[in-house]
Amino acid sequence: MQVSLPALKAFDAAARLGSFKAAATELSISPTAVSHHISNLEQRLSVTLFERTARKIKLTSVGLELSAATGHGFQIIDAAIQKIALAEKHITVSTTSSFAALVLIPSLQAFYSRYPDVQVNITSGESIDTHSYHLPVRFGETAKQNADDILSTERFNMFCIAQSAPQYEQAEHLTIYTTNWKNSELPKVPLQAWLELNGLQNKPVTVRTFDQELFGIQQAMLENALVFCSTTLVNGYVKAGVLKALNTRAVDSALCYYIADKAKRCDRHNVKFIEWLENLINN
């Protein structure tokens, strides 16, 4: 049997508050409207829900039974609404460890200063969450992605501790840390293309690799060595004067950062975060 939702809400309010007038105030309608809703509900169910006197109303046994059910039902609905509202203010960004550690986490305070009502949780991993308020920021092959999903296409260059740049530009032999991706299907880092672009293809080179760019960058900093990596990941270090690119030309790669199905992840907080992130990594 179908009954009116406004009638159930009027009944629930009157049952909780013990007054048609108080129910009317809570629902922002008139006491007459509350009375009509409840009378229509009683007619629909062919029962009496309240015993009415000149001064007060009292639930009948049937009214008590329905009141317990409507109270429980509206509590469940309210809890679901609260959960959804809370979730909308939280964004979980899943991404690579390197992007999380070197780009997102150091920049979060700048995001919070602009959007203090949004909480960002960052996880690293490969699974893509399907919730609309989750954002999978992925690293992959540019040619395999929808153009609208791409946040940035990656360029690579050679970096070192800022004060060491002059000595490396004159060095006869180069020891370079770079990345051999754990995912073998990804295009390789464009080291050979960089060497050729900069006329260094005949220079003696020793290449040492990790499976994440983060490790190569950290190790190069510890050893005061060279690292060939994405310009996006070291941008913060470069701006801070910690790392410096050699006096060389950066090379394009076949790699990009992207958000799978970006157009579908369009709640208002996601839109804010995506716009902020695109500005962060492209400027």
TrEMBL record:
Residues 3-60 form the HTH lysR-type domain. GO terms for molecular function: DNA-binding transcription factor activity; sequence-specific DNA binding. InterPro entries: LysR-type_TF_proteobact-type, LysR_HTH_N, WH-like_DNA-bd_sf, WH_DNA-bd_sf. It comes from the Bacteria. Pfam families: HTH_1. GO terms for biological process: DNA-templated transcription. PROSITE patterns: HTH_LYSR (PS50931). PANTHER family: GLYCINE CLEAVAGE SYSTEM TRANSCRIPTIONAL ACTIVATOR, HTH-TYPE TRANSCRIPTIONAL REGULATOR. Belongs to the LysR transcriptional regulatory family. This is LysR family transcriptional regulator. It comes from Alteromonas lipolytica.
